[in-house]
Each structure stands twice: as structure tokens, then as C-alpha cells.
């Protein structure tokens, strides 16, 4: 009975190596494909995510999954997450692990090149605009596709602090009339 639950040290090492290999492979795939893979999950995307999990689990645990192997695999995944979190705190680690935010709309103009770069369709962008309550493109100052796979929709009206666009690929395309320093806005409020 114990043999059915637990694994040997050699088997544990095998689980650690397989889990680490699958984790690194998945991180590389997400890095190459971009955060689009994590954005909105259609039914097709959900099926793919479930299949990814099944493949990773099968590769990590081998032919005969056991409780001990599952514990080792879970512990390895948690340890890898901790290591990745610490690596993201240093500049080179953050660059290696994370993608940059990408400008998808500058004003009412769609930046087609960045849509393609991010593997985002026009339909994905339109969905994000509707979810943000945008009724027409003329209401938009900028739309940014974040490294998390989410969309940030900034409306026209109050100026955007340029600091919020630092590090965003294509930020220079946002028309200057939509930008403003927070100090200038504060001075304008004091004059009223």
C-alpha cells in the first residue's frame, strides 16, 4: 500500500526534472506567443489550456502517478514560481521573463503592426472596447495590451500622465494632445 502512495528518491528527482522542464517549456511558449495566450479564453483556448495541463501533468508524473509524485510536482511548481518572482525583481530577469506592454490604439487609430505583434485580432480589441464602455473609437485616447493579457482602455478627457506609458511599445504614437504632466493638471485646478 505504501508503495502505491510514495516514490523513491530517484523517482522524486525524475519528477523534479520533468516538472522543471515542462515549466520552462511553458514559460518559453508564453514568452514567444505573448500574453495573448493568457488573454480571453475562447472555448478553443480553454480546450488548449486543459490539454496543456494534462500533458504537463502526465510528463511530470510519469506512467503511474502517485500521491508522493504529485506532492513533489506541486512543491517543484511552487518553488519555480518563487524563483521566477525573485528573478522578476532584477532588471535582466524581468526582461527575460516578461513581455512589455504594447500600444494597440493611439487615439482612434488602431496600430495594426502591434495587433499582429501581440497576436490580437480586431475582434479581441473590439470586445475590450465594448467591455470598457466605449461607444465609438473617438472616445479613446489609448489602448494598451498589458503583459498580463489584459487590456487597459484610456479615454479622452483628462490628460494621460506620460509616466503611465513608459515602457509601452509604441507609446510615442499617442498624440501629444492626449498627454499631460500631472503638475500641469494640478496647476490648472489651483487656478480655478
From TrEMBL:
GO terms for cellular component: plasma membrane. The chain crosses the membrane at residues 12-34, 41-61, 67-87. The keyword Transmembrane helix applies. InterPro entries: DUF421 (IPR007353), UPF0702_alpha/beta_dom_sf (IPR023090). It is a multi-pass membrane protein. It is found in: Cell membrane. Keywords: Cell membrane, Membrane, Transmembrane, Transmembrane helix. It holds the Pfam family DUF421. Residues 96-158 form the YetF C-terminal domain. Belongs to the UPF0702 family. PANTHER family: UPF0702 TRANSMEMBRANE PROTEIN YCAP (PTHR34582). This is YetF C-terminal domain-containing protein.
Amino acid at each position: 500500500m505504501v508503495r502505491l502512495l510514495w516514490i523513491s528518491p530517484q523517482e522524486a528527482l525524475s519528477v523534479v526534472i520533468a516538472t522543471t522542464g515542462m515549466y520552462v517549456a511553458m514559460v518559453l511558449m508564453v514568452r514567444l506567443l505573448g500574453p495573448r495566450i493568457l488573454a480571453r479564453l475562447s472555448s478553443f483556448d480553454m480546450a488548449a489550456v486543459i490539454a496543456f495541463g494534462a500533458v504537463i501533468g502526465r510528463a511530470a508524473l510519469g506512467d503511474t502517478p502517485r500521491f508522493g509524485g504529485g506532492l513533489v510536482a506541486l512543491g517543484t511548481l511552487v518553488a519555480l514560481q518563487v524563483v521566477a518572482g525573485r528573478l522578476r525583481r532584477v532588471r535582466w530577469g524581468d526582461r527575460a521573463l516578461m513581455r512589455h506592454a504594447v500600444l494597440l490604439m493611439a487615439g482612434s487609430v488602431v496600430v495594426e503592426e502591434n495587433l499582429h505583434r501581440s497576436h490580437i485580432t480586431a475582434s479581441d480589441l473590439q470586445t475590450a472596447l465594448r467591455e470598457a464602455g466605449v461607444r465609438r473609437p473617438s472616445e479613446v485616447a489609448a489602448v494598451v495590451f498589458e503583459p498580463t493579457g489584459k487590456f487597459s482602455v484610456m479615454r479622452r478627457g483628462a490628460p494621460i500622465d506620460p509616466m503611465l506609458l513608459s515602457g509601452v511599445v509604441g507609446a510615442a504614437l499617442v498624440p501629444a494632445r492626449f498627454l499631460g504632466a500631472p503638475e500641469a493638471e494640478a496647476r490648472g485646478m489651483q487656478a480655478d
